[in-house]
TrEMBL record:
<dbReference type="GO" id="GO:0046872">
    <property type="term" value="F:metal ion binding"/>
</dbReference>
<feature type="domain" description="Calcineurin-like phosphoesterase">
    <location>
        <begin position="3"/>
        <end position="146"/>
    </location>
</feature>
<protein>
    <recommendedName>
        <fullName>Phosphoesterase</fullName>
        <ecNumber>3.1.4.-</ecNumber>
    </recommendedName>
</protein>
<comment type="similarity">
    <text>Belongs to the metallophosphoesterase superfamily. YfcE family.</text>
</comment>
<dbReference type="InterPro" id="IPR024654">
    <property type="entry name" value="Calcineurin-like_PHP_lpxH"/>
</dbReference>
<dbReference type="Pfam" id="PF12850">
    <property type="entry name" value="Metallophos_2"/>
</dbReference>
<dbReference type="GO" id="GO:0016787">
    <property type="term" value="F:hydrolase activity"/>
</dbReference>
<keyword id="KW-0479">Metal-binding</keyword>
<dbReference type="InterPro" id="IPR029052">
    <property type="entry name" value="Metallo-depent_PP-like"/>
</dbReference>
<dbReference type="InterPro" id="IPR000979">
    <property type="entry name" value="Phosphodiesterase_MJ0936/Vps29"/>
</dbReference>
Amino acid sequence: MPRVLIVSDSHGMTKELEMIKTEHTDQVDHMIHCGDSELPYADEPIQGFSRVAGNCDYDPDYPDDLTVDVNDLRFFVAHGHMHHVKMTLDPITYRASEDNAQIVCHGHSHFAQATEIGDQLVINPGSIRMPRGRREETYAILEWDDDKNATVRFYRLNGDEVKDLARDLKLR
């Protein structure tokens, strides 16, 4: 089953980002950082991640958004600040649909959740630095099978699963 690691809003936490990367590199097919790493684009801790600029990232090498294909799924990645994700997910899901993305990954609000909107799965992995809405610092892993049965699981920095955030769903 393909697996994608999704992290956001690490806000300079290099040790923790390296720890997550080391823990999961051999267990996932792709790694995504949804912005606000506060690291230069070429810094070692962020290497290996498909990554975008957040409102706290000033290195001009970061793209504002990107589209990534992993196996049979297309991911649209943006931080979300330019799409006003704290107010509504409509602009970011519309932008993702322009790229025919089934999965939308964003950060900015620091609020961990996986939500289905139309034919898209929208994932905010939360923040490994300053979570909002709950106390746990979180990141997410999405996995799916050939029939597009998918699971989104959220994890704390210590590797424990945050079970009440998990979602099982059928991708379209």
